[in-house]
Amino acid sequence: xxxxxxxxxxPVPEGADAGQALRNSLELAQAAERLGYRRFWMAxxxxxxxxxxxxxxxxLAFVGAGTSTIRIGAGGVMLPNHAPLVIAEQFGTLESLxxxxxxxxxxxxxxxxxxxxxxLRRNLGSDENQFPQDVVELIGYFQRREGRAxxxxxGEGLDIPVWILGSSLFGAQLAAMLGxxxxxxxxxxxxxxxxxxxxxxxxxxxxxxxxxxxVMLGFNAFAADSAEEAELLATSVQQAFVNLRTGTPAKxxxxxxxxxxxxxxxxxxxxxxxxxxxxxxxxxxxxxxxxSFVGETGADELMITxxxxxxxxxxxxxxxxxxxxxxxxxxxxxxxx
Length: 337
Fold this sequence. Notes:
Layout: E1 4-8, H1 18-35, E2 39-42, H2 56-65, E3 71-78, H3 84-97, E4 102-107, H4 114-119, H5 130-141, E5 162-166, H6 169-178, E6 182-184, H7 193-203, E7 215-223, H8 227-233, H9 235-245, H10 265-274, E8 278-281, H11 283-297, E9 301-305, H12 311-324
Parallel strand pairs: 1-2, 1-9, 2-3, 3-4, 4-5, 5-6, 6-7, 7-8, 7-9
Helix pairs in contact: 1-12, 2-3, 3-5, 6-7, 11-12
């Protein structure tokens, strides 16, 4: 059975606020833990009305305190926005609080637009070569070295797995060179997925952290008790992508029946491309699609994301996926009921 994990953007639905979104994230993490998912990752985005996980390490501390066994992590921290020492300290703190449960995924994009990136005090003139240097510097802070002038406390000496995230060949090449696990953002940028996987596997060099390539792929799942309901649930993320691509990001909208049919051909084509790596339907349909995707890609793990407007429907979607994929029955069901 392939491991499944959860990617949560702490979506803020219309009519809700960030506080409710983060409480929903905790409840989702608790459900994922009961259902048998391996990891619960949150992602750094800024200046986005519909995403509440901007302060990713803070949000993960909240989730970690309310769970006990599921791995928690960043999918990812956008390293160009931060000094490597600060991230080493933040995730060293998380690992100190929740030993053996913390992952650190690192991305090269700013996770926002140019104006917000500037507000983050990011050096907008830096070239892409700075990212590999920052990754190596950050990993170095987790290692014990005598006579070091600058130390990450907490962080130094802790075993925190570092992942490289990407949606292009750059991240694949870097992950391979450093011998790190690689997570590809196929849930929203699938165009280069197959080539990136090939490059990563062909060029992988074993490291102290990892002796063979390990690929995790993002995958959208909208599961419900009927195909019609699942199709309806998926219209919220369709609207969100259209809003984002037209420069009007907003809170996650409620579903609209037949939404895609109302769009011009260009927008429909964009949605079809963006959501290529998706399963929409009942349990049997989702199981078939996941198994086919894994067979095509050889993925070692999938990270399931479900941008669903209704929180109870989102919990139910993850439950259906777990049941369909043969996870052991959870105790109490979603929501602890």
